[in-house]
Amino acid sequence: MLKQKPLGFKKFFLLEFTKEIIRSTETYQKVLIGKEVRKVISEDPETEMLNLEVKRAKENIKKLVKESIQKESERIANMKKLDSLPEFDYSVQAQRNKSIKRPVRQPLPSLIIPEPNLPWTVKDIRPFPSMDQEELRLGKIDVLLKDSLVKTIECNGLDEKIIVTGAMGRKQTGITLEEEEIDSIIQKFSSATKIPVSEGIFRVVFGKLSLSAVVSEVVGSKFIIKKMALPPIQIPFRR
Hints:
The chain is α+β, with helices and mostly antiparallel strands. The protein has six helices and six strands; from the N terminus they run H-H-H-H-H-E-E-E-H-E-E-E. Strands 3-2-1-6-5-4 form a six-stranded antiparallel beta sheet.
């Protein structure tokens, strides 16, 4: 009887028979269960919210990656611009530096006091320092007198900064003297040596100090104080 069935029915029968065999297998059952589970999960509102959060997170990640790539591209472009800048010509800058005129430091003026006209009989006599006399107290310049590096002290007049010379060279200090202070210093040398002060050139020696001054009430007085070195002690030779 089966042989008399049309060919189309045979194909249909064999196809349905094969489907039933597959449906009865364990693997098919697992696949079918998996589809049902995914369907149930996809229809759950919480699952839908979770999918939205995942989608947003992915979009944020894509945005951050895109921004990072853009910043890196801009940085590389800026580096290329720097590489393309012309090199600095140091020789030109050196020539410019040479052409710049730097201010020349003017030398400090020296106070020159002329030598007095002495008779030829005493012209070669030189003052001799002594240690047995008291030290003079000369006010503001005492600190300079005590400084072993200072050899000369120059005062060019009222409110002029004191200039010193010595081991440090020729330097200007921050000390200035009023007219009364200048006159007082000259007068102290006069009193100590008992030599009266008069208009004009005034020279005296007291202790280890030599004073040369120009005394003038019209233009103001000036002075130079020099520290005199003691001669070396000579030991008598014994045979």
